[in-house]
Amino acid sequence: MQRLAGILMVFLMAGVAQAASFDCRKASSKMERAICTNPRLSVLDESLATAYRAAKARLSSNSVKTFVTGQSSWLRFTSTYCFTDYNAAAALPEEADKCLAEAYRQRIKEIEATGKIVAGFKTYLMLDTTIKVSAKEQAVHTLERRYVQLDDNSALAVKLNGYLTLKNKIDFDADARGSESYSVILSNPSKDWMYKELTADTSTGAYPNTYKECGVYAISLGRPLLIRDVFAGQEWIKIAEAAARRHFAALAKQNSEFTLDMVTGYERFQLKPDQAFPYCFTAIGMYVDGFFPHVAQVFDGVTIPWQTFDRVLTPYARQQIRTISGK
User: What is the domain partition of the chain in residue ranges?
Assistant: First the structure.
């Protein structure tokens, strides 16, 4: 019986060796050994390799270089992250396998989206990931940045890629514990506006924090959209603040857990004409958040309808918003 079990194990390992995207007889790292001893991970590894080859074939040679850099970053990060627990010790094998499976599935989806067309441009996702492990302080600090890039070498595409790139250098505290995740997506809501939306999830202090930052690149202007491009004069500030106050006053009447003294963020509207337009928006209106401390974020955010600003919009902005709202 033992001999039969041994034979079955040999056949199983042989099958895994063939399924993985590399020769399991040469597996040396923890990640490679995990893939080679887990049939499910082996299949995911082969699926990722297939998707990766197909994605590279859809990109130009210049973009392939950036794309490969992103994949290398993902591999370095994953090979450490999935084998390290919260206290910077070695992760349990079953937890490492679960982490790898989740990471592979997400990465396959990202790679399969390579070539998606936005405003006539072929796009792909760039990754920039870092992990710092301090065994002495039992701390792990992770940084994951994902941002869309255009596979095009035109002057406009070069400017847009610079606009979309998350390039602020992050200096890690080697002994800090925490995680930071930033993701930038791109859409084209009107003929002239390229809309950028950054979603951030951070946990580096007492409270986790989730927020969005948005911006618009105006193609005809050749630069990011400014407040003065959208609003004529500064009267919009009073209009926006009044709308937000009405929203929160109504919320206070509806929810006993909410009081008006919790609102602290009206300075979000105190912007000068030459500052970049920072607000998120939909077809309905302009979305603004950042009014509450971390403990009350469940109440955060207000959407101010575009018609509220109708008399203070510039003709240029009114034309673009008409397209966005479908009117």
Answer: 57-187, 227-325
CA neighbor of 150 nearest in space, from 67, 243, 266: 67
The sheet with strand 280-281 has its strands ordered as: 280-281, 285-288, 302-305
Q: Quick count: other Cβ atoms within 10 Å of Cβ 24?
A: 19
Minimal CA–CA distance to 287: which of 305, 273, 314?
305
User: What CA–CA distance (Å, rounded) separates 212 from 190?
Assistant: 21
Nearest by Cα to 152 from 236, 245, 222, 59: 59
Over the stretch 159-195, which tens digit does the pLDDT of each residue have?
999 999 987 766 666 567 889 999 999 999 998 999 9
Beta-carbon contacts of residue 158 (< 8 Å; ≥ 6 apart): none
Helix (H) or strand (E) holding 131: strand 121-134
- Tell me the whole-structure pTM to 2 decimals: 0.84
CATH architecture group of domain 227-325: Alpha-Beta Complex (3.90)
Q: Is the Cβ–Cβ distance between 110 and 73 less than 8 Å?
A: no
